[in-house]
Amino acid sequence: MAPQNGILTPSFNTPVCRSLFGPVDREQLRVEFQESMRKTLKEATCKWSFDFVNESPLQGGDFQWEGVPGNKVPALYRPCMVRAGRQGAQCVKERGSKRKQTNITDFYPSKRRRVQSVRKLDQ
């Protein structure tokens, strides 16, 4: 915007600046992210006495971990549906279980808009 008689007016000669905080240093961002993930993982490991990297419980914690068979776990926690068959339990991925995104129109009935127009008479 260029000042003109004390009033700001848009200047169409200058490009729009979309970088509010300057260029992003990708390497620094990656290092900070890795450090944050390492710290979070360490805190979670201490809190739950569970090794999340190797997916195994740690000894001497506040919790006693025990294995649960896949068919005893609620479907919410399964990556797929477990079905018992002749060969034992089988993991069968469900098809069509992905929910579609809802629209605002899903919550109220749609109404057809009627436009009344004046008909022109042929003379």
From TrEMBL:
It holds the Pfam family CDI. InterPro entries: CDI_dom, CDI_dom_sf, CDKN1A. The keyword Transmembrane helix does not apply. It comes from the Eukaryota. The keyword Protein transport does not apply. Gene3D superfamilies: p27. Belongs to the CDI family. This is Cyclin-dependent kinase inhibitor 1. It comes from Acipenser oxyrinchus oxyrinchus. The lineage of its organism: Eukaryota, Metazoa, Chordata, Craniata, Vertebrata. The gene is CDKN1A.
